[in-house]
Write a structure and sequence with these properties.
Length: 266
Amino acid sequence: MPDALEFAIDIAQEAGQLLCRLYSERHTVQTKSSDIDLVTEADVASDRLIVAAISRSFPSHRILSEEGLGDHDAFVAGSSPVWLVDPLDGTVNYAHGYPAWGVSLALSQAGQVLMAVTFDPLRDEIFWARRGQGAWCNGERLRVSDVAEMRQALVATGFAYKRATLADNNLAEFSAVMPRVQGVRRAGSAVLDLAHVAGGRLDGYWEMHLNPWDWASGSLLVEEAGGKITDMRDEPWSLLAGEIVATNSHLHTELLTHLAQAGQHG
């Protein structure tokens, strides 16, 4: 059995190269949970490549993959290692030719992420972490930022595909945070947002209504880079949580306070 981290780095890069080859082509676009939740032939091709490779190299492991080619009951039964796969995070960006999308793989067991890889093909940046061994990008150790004042912070967030019909659609939270920080970015790729928190390019990030594969890799990157992750009530975060707050730790309490006030009064 190959080393899981080396395997994940190789297969994430292979999937990223596939996506780059397809990037400039005319895409076959379908919808999933809503009319703005897209999936392209590139998502499916990348998913098939990754899932097939995992199945060959780690036949006893379970797989939870965004495009449904894995085992969506993976968290329900047994204690086998589980791979969480996002074969193309930022599909709307990808379909429009907007350069913010990536690939992520994470290996978890008993609900804890043990190893994570996020690949940004357009920048040729490979982020990885193994629990207890730090977080890295292209061989350089990652550290979260040391920004301690909200007014100097650059943070990121995102909005659910069903935001038009959700009561908790993050608009109140966005409005509460925006005036208090240097800037808020909405790049459209959770896996890259979390990688950038780990690398100190962003000072914080929050989002709601995503899935385990969106956050699995980035959560470990942030933790291993010295950051902090909780849910929006400051409770320990888990892969099955429907929300996440990730920061450099210095800003965590204040960001949570603003998010909570928005939730109460928004």
